[in-house]
Design goal:
The chain contains nine helices and ten strands. By secondary structure, it is of the alpha/beta class. Helices cover 39% and strands 14% of the residues. The radius of gyration is 17 Å and the shape is globular.
Length: 279
Amino acid sequence: MKKYKLVSREYHAADTVVDVAGVKIGGGSLAVMAGPCAVESHAQLMEAARAVSQAGAKFLRGGAFKPRTSPYDFQGLAGKGLKMLREAGDAYGLKVVTEAVDASFIPLVSQYADVLQIGARNMQNFQLLKAAGRVDMPVLLKRGLASTIEEWLNAAEYIASEGNSRIIMCERGIRTYETFTRNTLDLSAVAAIKELSHLPVIVDPSHGTGRWEMVRPMASAAIAAGADGLIIEVHPNPAEALSDGPQSLTPKNFTRLMHEVRLMAKARKAFLEDEGGWI
């Protein structure tokens, strides 16, 4: 067997569906997580939550703790931001997805979030992965900036080996020699995870491209490739965002994206049902 045993198809042939208090990720449903890169203010977050909810998203994403390349960049509002996320999520019927940047923060984040996110920079923070494996909540595991698919699956194995099988894989682009985009969105990873693992996989075209103009077409491409969902950055005013403004969609553009990906998901489902899969 492969080193990543518990998360492999060899161990568990059927697709895993992660249920987040009634909202399913996997199993043919389209799960969309959306919201600002960082929680900046109460007004900003409530406006974003209202917009993504009205467009059809079921999850509110937002960073209360922000691991940034420069120590002088905005680092998030910490506990205050977590409280805002919970308030906004409850106000608009959204599940909350947010990141824990250290194992010691997991108890605090767990009080406010429905899904615990492990960010790309922490994909191989093994103590954090083990701690995430010991909590009774779903974990969204982002692929590392330069990680192979096998390394990514082994990171998921760390979580599963501690008893938590409610893992959602997230392809968010990898670092290559290309400079036009922030990262290179590896949509082949969707097909690879579907072949090698039973875990659901979603795609982050915001970080995968770093350019808001490319988010919509790459979101549709991700659904066409078989992704179980998307995580999208949406900001009421991207030009004034404290982080990741260039890759954030306005509420209007997010609404257009949701219309397009719904059509793509419907078309793909109809095709698979008509064709009966590969021969």
